[in-house]
Amino acid sequence: MRKALGRSLVAASMTIGLALGMSTSAEAVEDDYYNISVNKGGARLARADGTISWIDAKRFAILSARLTDTACDGRPVYFFLDISGQWTGPKRTNSQGCGKTVNFGRIPTSDDSGIRYVDIWVCRDVENSRNDDCTHQVHRNPYFPG
User: What does pTM read for this prediction?
Assistant: First the structure.
């Protein structure tokens, strides 16, 4: 009798949850696509694109990260990841020149304290300057609580 009552309550709860539009299981999160261009004075200097695949609150991977030099000025372009304002990943550089694209493949990232967001910075190196031409784009982790 108790088992039958328990099953009935579970079935009723699921039916009510579905009727209210609630999910009965964890929903999959779609990947984030990014396409970032560095522009200055009407000229496009660099472009980075790829896909962020969020795994959980502590992990993600960038899939097929690509970086293109669009300035044709002999200066390298690069990108790096700022992880929740806590630390940055290595600088990944394209020095191949005008119109060339470098594919960096899969870039897995994790942090045991959690990843609130990833801020992707794309830059063109400015010779003899600490102020490279940069732009960035923030992507929030949908699995991070709060």
Answer: 0.80
Model confidence pLDDT, tens digit, residues 75-134: 999 999 999 999 999 999 999 999 999 999 999 999 999 999 999 999 999 988 889 999
Residue 8 lies in a domain: no
Q: How far is CA 57 from the centre of its chain?
A: 13
Residue 42 lies in a domain: yes
- State the CATH number of the domain containing residue 42: 2.60.40
Number of H helices, E strands in the chain: 1, 9
Sequence-distant (6+) residues with CB within 8 A of 132 are: 123, 124, 125, 126
Token code pair at residue 33: 């696509």
Report phi then psi at 11, rounded to 5. -60, -40
